[in-house]
Amino acid sequence: MPEPTAFRPGTGWSTGVGSMPGTDPREAVAVVTGEAPRLPHLPELPGRGPGADLVGRAAALLVDLHVDLQPSGWRLVDRPSGDERRARSFLAQDLDEMESACYGVVGPVKVQVCGPWTLAAALRLTRGEPVLSDPGAVRDLVASLTEGLLSHLSDLRGRMPGAELVLQLDEPSLPAVLAGGVLSSSGARAFRPVPTTTAEDVLRGTVEALRVPVVVHCCADRPPVGLLHRAGVHGLSLDVTVLPRDLGDGLGDELGVAVEAGVALLAGVVPAVRSSATAVSDPAGTVEPLRRLWHRLGLDPEGLRRVVVTPTCGMAGADPGHAVAALRLAAAAASQLADDPEG
Q1: Mean pLDDT over residues 98-127, rounded?
Q2: How are strands ordered across the β-sheet holding 107-114?
Q3: C-alpha dihedral over 314, 116, 145, 77, to 10 degrees?
Q4: Is the pLDDT of residue 280 over 80?
């Protein structure tokens, strides 16, 4: 298989982060393909319950590892469970609907999955502790997830032969993994921080094995941009609205270097949930934080034309009307940047 080309968004692109409200995959796919046609994404519907959540969905892709659901969360077990079968069924339903909507699509399509470090922090060993507590178990989990993702991508190519697949790894827990913020099952102690080099090596190995453009989504206020860039990711999906104004601790330098090196930015600027303090009808105002960020980084304003506009995070907690309005606003804001990057 040839090496992946870099992820080079066109002008005026928008997309969603992943999750959507509701329980009807056909309706969710119709919304996504209708409101974000330049970069549609496979919707995730956690509202359907266990198995449709971030961890259960990734667990459905594991090869030679099995899971069930306990009060403490998802746990590795010796044999397939009903919880695992339900997770696989949810994913199959979603893929059927996406295939129906996108079979003839020629162009990029984004799919999302829980990243290896967030999965290792959330998934439990049989004895109840996070997989993260056992380096050998982490290696087995990463290998199983990578093999499962290769099969998943192959399945998607058969279902959507004209699609240029982009894989998004969701890593909301990566900052906690690096900072020693993952707790034991009792909550009485925290596990030691994973060394930056180890986290980087795991992500680099995953990116290189998958042979498709890989975007990492991390909506923390201080995402590990430098680590992700060194790991070879092709895109960064960040919540621009929570980044510190001073871009301190090297964050500004890391982000500027990554963007100038060709790493795509998927900029979360549209509110993911409805709030009395936020509006979903002002494209120019919506992208203003992004323009300010670009100015602080000292980047060429022309580069804003190829920033992909997204909601700040997944929208599982939004009401359906807001989710539609948010994707519509993201598309309008992307067009605003394409037409007038300097504002």
Answers
A1: 95
A2: 107-114, 163-170, 214-217, 235-239, 264-270, 308-311
A3: -100
A4: no
